[in-house]
UniProtKB/TrEMBL annotation:
One family name in Pfam for this protein: TetR_N
UniProt name for this protein: HTH tetR-type domain-containing protein
DNA-binding region: 40-59
Residues in HTH tetR-type domain copies: 17-77
UniProt-listed InterPro entries: Homeodomain-like_sf, HTH-type_TetR-like_transc_reg, HTH_TetR, MftR_C
């Protein structure tokens, strides 16, 4: 790919990420003001100054405007940069916590608001399970590549599942204790898994 094409792709991806963030910001504001179930896709689109069809280009459903984030690609990249001397779990822990450390206060506030909705709206909690499954598969893939093993290796899947379980339990705890430091909770909780054999 030429440098010009890479630059254009980078610009397209940044524009897409910016649009997604703007739509989510408006959606979260409307959900807070009127309630999740009472807010329509049309209202979100109007607030974000896009058409409903443009909304559906970015989000397949209304649930997705809460569930979707851009963190998987960042995590994959950060994981790949970790020292080969670290165990896969240590590398995952380092990648996750370093990514959390780079979130701005506004981004962390958005993560918190999305988390609050997911934990308080049953349909969103159910939809988030699909997202967690996709993240589990992503974790299994990057760990398997690092270890030279297959993604369906039970040990690899167990590690990925344990990391996702920790993530979910921390999300739930944080929704009940908003004063807690999410990044610190996540790091301390992931540290509890250090006894695993990988």
């Amino acid at each position: 790919m030429s440098a010009g094409n890479q630059k254009a792709l980078g610009l397209r991806e940044r524009k897409k990420a910016k649009t997604i963030a703007a739509v989510q910001m408006h959606a979260l504001r409307l959900f807070k003001e009127f309630g999740y179930h009472e807010t329509t896709v049309e209202q979100i689109a109007e607030a974000a100054e896009i058409s409903p069809s443009t909304f559906f280009r970015y989000f397949a459903t209304k649930e997705d405007v809460v569930i979707t984030d851009n963190y998987d690609s960042l995590l994959t990249s950060a994981f790949g940069e970790q020292s080969s001397e670290l165990s896969p779990l240590q590398a995952l822990r380092q990648a996750i916590t370093s990514g959390m450390a780079h979130l701005s206060p506004e981004e962390l506030k958005t993560v918190y608001e999305r988390n609050q909705l997911i934990m308080s709206v049953p349909s969103l909690r159910a939809a988030s399970l699909n997202n967690l499954t996709q993240s589990l598969q992503m974790f299994a893939k990057i760990v398997a590549e690092r270890m030279g093993r297959k993604e369906d290796d039970l040990v690899i899947r167990t590690l990925a599942g344990a990391v996702m379980g920790v993530n979910f339990s921390v999300m739930q705890y944080w929704s009940e204790h908003p004063e807690a430091d999410f990044a610190k909770l996540l790091d301390e909780s992931l540290a509890l898994l250090e006894g695993l054999p990988l």
